[in-house]
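We store sequence, tokenised fold; for instance:
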Amino acid sequence: MENQIKLIEASVEKYKESILKAERYIWNNPETGFKEWKTNAYLKEKYTALGYTLHEAGNIPGFYVEIDTGREGPCVLVLGEMDSVICPEHPEADKETGAVHACGHNTHSATLYGIAAALTENGMLDNLCGKIKLCAVPAEELLEIEYRAELKKQGIIKYFGGKSEFLYRGYFDDVDIAFMVHAGGRFGVRKGHHVGCIVKKIIYKGKAAHAGGAPQMGRNALYAATCGLNAVNAIRETFLNMDYIRVHPIMTAGGTMVNAIPSEARLESYVRGKTFDAMKKVNRKVNQALVGAALSLGTNIEIVDYPGYSPTVHDSTLGDMFAEAAAAIIPQHEFKIVQGVATGSTDMGDLSSIMPIQHADAAGAKGTGHGMDYYIVDPVAACVDSAKLQLMMLYLLLSDNGERAKKVIAEYKPQFATKEEFLSFVDSLNDSGDRIEYFDDGTAKVRIDK
């Protein structure tokens, strides 16, 4: 193993400056999900220069490359996310879009490029079996719901997350194990869960009227939306702690001019939870609260529910292997194993529903994630050392005829037996339409969910 460690270190160090330049380029050109065209073009040029053949998504950003060792064995997928968040108050946010990599995904893309480069070096594949897939994947941050809903309406995407969409497209059909490393404040792994989420688009529909001259002729959609938000807040104490529920709506529109009763108000929200059952139960409660508010003011309400991300289950054995790999290749860094549930969501959860995954962390970031003070302060740790760690993981999994990878695969108990079964369930979470039908006799018919 000592020789392999030296080989990995030398192979990554050879491309160190190129890796760090990639990190800075992507930081300086932030793009939100399914819009990462500059990032995609930049990475495409880098991978092509290394001699790789890219399998491109085409109508959306993203691609993967496949490395065949020539020896039979498992297929391991390594992912690097490309998208940014939106935080206009960040000092380095894009002045027009507010986009900024206050999520650290710029380091993911740079790191994956470093892995791809190192794997072209002599000897790097000699002791490995099976296949390696490296995937530059779009749209992990689940935002701009209206934009993604329009892409879905146009048939460009079916799912809102890049990994979910790539899974649906068949890009991961031959994958046995998947992992990635996310920028953070320290190196480590989680043995436990990330919560999943249902995504909601909510439209209160009222009636416009002159706000001063004839407000009695209107139906105030903004007031109905405000009542809806208060109603959701009023049911929070009914959420069970063990379900790790999070509901956090925002208002994206609430009127067009001050002297008119708002005829429309728009909200977006997630309903997050540890399990699908918890998410569905709370989502129904939230819908009931939102609909009740509309009914109380005589407005209508359209609720569109989309499948967001599945709850993520981290493979414990892969977590232990990450700790082993870190001790071998980056002993200068502290490495922590954390137990429990994280209340953020990721589309790695969709992959974990059908295959063993690990979503590890790297050091190098400082500040509040998605906030105005987030920066990459140690790009060597976040990119170069992370690349070494992930290459060491590939070695542990695919050396010795892939015995350790085969053990992980054999012991994994997926929540769904097949991709098709999983996607069928996810599709069942879709729901849309107006929820109230008013009748001339003063009665109304209410629909909470399908």
Observations:
- The chain is about 35% helix and 25% strand.
